[in-house]
Each structure stands twice: as structure tokens, then as C-alpha cells.
Amino acid sequence: MFKIKKTLQVLISLTLANMPLLCVAQEYKLPFKQDEWIKDYPPFRIAGNLYYVGTDDLASYLVTTKEGHLLINTGLEESVGQLKKNVETLGFKFSDIRILLATHAHYDHVAGMAAIKKATGATLMIQEADVQLMKDGGSSDAVLGKYGASFAPVVPDRVLKDQEIIKLGDTSLKLLHHPGHTPGASSFALTVKDQNRSYKILIANIPTILSETKLSGMPGYQQVGKDYGYTLQVMKKEQFDIWVASHGSQFNLHKKHKPGQAYRPEAFYGRKDYDKILSEIEATYNRRLQE
């Protein structure tokens, strides 16, 4: 599916409180795009100070604190206005976003980073192995790089390593390096709480294997097969109460939450579907190794 070539003309206009109008117009080659990636989805509270602010399938997460907020993933650049609206619908200020993070540097998760960083002045933090992808707009990607830059290049402010802690206010997130899908692909672990209890959260980067990935190694990513093998093993051992992922479809968002539904952290309990998707990917991994 990534052989499909599409050209996207992007025009985003954001009017922020106490900020001038920001206009970004740029052409990038997108290997693939789904309607669900830009379809609107009402924002909601997952648990404690963790909120879903993404689209129908591209997940973006807002972690709120009294010192400002963290945003994980942005979706496509054309969805930045929608993301801003979702944040404000929940009662928070878009301009209070202080830290930007990403589960991995593919255009469907980071294409809005440059615009949001410019609009908010937030600090962009990226796992060290994905820094170059952010700098060149994805053109050095081992699989998708043949299409050229697929998102606006942006230079990270802070380079993160495995197990590094990101702190803001009274909230701490731990970066878990889960490479394969990209060299710097990462999950995030944090603990949130409400009036009833605390919840261990895993924002998982599910290690999907793209059809054009050669596990024997590719120019620019020779150890991709080894990285996938490592990630599949360590992700099986992760412990959590609630898990979500980079795509809503990966954690059955639409079955677990309906628009307008009341606050129900328990809807995201359990790991049966988490173990199932990892098992399916591992089967694909083993088959592809044999091929």
C-alpha cells in the first residue's frame, strides 16, 4: 500500500491566543493516506490527566499538568487545526503545550510537529535514533525515504535515550526504546491518578512490519531485523493497567470508547488484545525471516 504516491497541498491556519496568525503551506509526497487519519473524533479523558485528542485513527495524547502540557504525536499536518480544537474543547489552552513527543518519526505521527512547535514554542524531544528523520522530513527513512521528504523538517531540542525520564510539573514519563518500525520508535510509560486510584499507563508503539521492510537489512537500517526481534521480546514483558497505541485501530479504540461516553478508565484495562497483536506481529516476523 505504500507504493501509492500522493501529493498533498497543505494549508493550515491557526489563530492562537496572544499569538499572530500562523500559516504553513508546503507540498510533500505522502506514500499513503487513509480517510480515518483525518476524520474527526471527539476528544475524551482516558484516565487521570491523560486525554485522547487525535483523529479517528491517528492517536495523539495530551498529558496535562499545572506547569503546562505534554503532547504525544500530532497526526498529519492538515489535522493540526483539528488537534488544537480538540485540546480547547477539553478546556485546556493549546498555547500551554510545553513538550512535544512522538512514538516514531513517520509522517502520519509527526507531520504537524513543525507547525505546533512554531505556534506554541514547545520543546521537541525525540529518541536519538529518529533525530535524523525529523531533521530531513523523513527522506532518510529506510522504507519511505524513496518518496522524499513527507513532512516538514524540524530540529529536535532534546535528544532522548532509552529509559530516560521526561518531567513536567508533577508528571513523569519514561521513554521505552522499541526500535524496528523506525530506528527510534518508542513507547512511553507513566502513572496517572484520579479520585479513585492510580493507573499504570503504557502508550505503546506497536512494532508493525511494513510490507517493504527487509528484515535481512536495508541501506540506512542494517539492524532492522535484530531490532524487531528485540522489541517483540521486551514488549511482551511490559506491565500496565491501561494501554493505548499510536493508532486507534491498534488498541480497538472504537470498541472501547464511543463518542459522548462517560469517563470509564476501566474500558482500557487488560492486556488480552495487547498480547494478541504482538503475537500476530511475531508470527509475521518469523515468517518473513524464513522468506
From TrEMBL:
The keyword tRNA processing is assigned to this record: no
Segments forming domain Metallo-beta-lactamase: 57-247
Keyword Transcription regulation annotated: no
Domain of life: Bacteria
Signal peptide stretch: 1-25
InterPro entries according to UniProt: Metallo-B-lactamas, NDM-1-like, RibonucZ/Hydroxyglut_hydro
Keywords in alphabetical order: Signal
Name of the featured protein: Metallo-beta-lactamase domain-containing protein
The species this protein was found in: Dyadobacter helix
